Amino acid sequence: MRPIRNSAKAVIIQDNRLLLTVNQGQQGQYYLFPGGGQEPGETLREAVVRECMEEIGQEVEPGELLCVREYIGKNHQFAQWDSEIHQVEFYFVCRLKADPSEVELRNGAVPDPAQIGVEWVELERLNEIELYPKTLGTSFQRGKAGSVYIGDVN
Questions:
Q1: Residue 27 phi, psi dihedral angles, 5° rounding
Q2: HEC-encoded secondary structure of 62-111
Q3: pLDDT tens, position by position, for the chain (154 residues)?
Q4: Which of 23, 26, 34, 91 is the most buried (most CB within 10 A)?
Q5: What structural domains does the chain harbor?
Q6: Using an 8 Å Cβ cutoff, are 31 and 23 in contact?
Q7: C-alpha dist (Å) from residue 50 to 45, 93, 121
């Protein structure tokens, strides 16, 4: 069994749009919140800043902790590939340090292997895309983020 992994994620909302990474997998295109694994000796805030530089090529300023989600792979639709994964994800409200109108959307220097791009997605369109976790997209469309601990949700 693999150890439990911490992951720091950025929630970047500007002008009713959410900044997401675009990824390509065996089931087609899907979207994720920028962010990734915490390194030893690194705070969660440091991890989200580093991961955003790697994935979206932009410096972010992390704010409040929005929510905590667990991902237990065996309980989800990708269990055949993710059954050994147990990840605790910390979602921080972040803002881009650069003016969003001047940001060129492109992959950062070290994108995830499946990442093919970066895209602003209008909040009203979140139900039209494959967003993981979908629960957060639904919360943003309703104008609320829910409780701090949201559990092992899709």
A1: -95, 5
A2: EEEEEEEEEEEHHHCCCHHHHCCCEEEEEEEEEEECCCHHHCCCCCCCCC
A3: 678 999 999 999 999 999 999 999 888 999 999 999 999 999 999 999 999 999 999 999 999 999 999 988 777 665 455 667 889 999 999 999 988 777 677 777 777 889 999 999 999 999 999 999 988 888 887 877 656 888 788 8
A4: 34
A5: 5-144 (3.90.79.10)
A6: yes
A7: 9, 15, 22
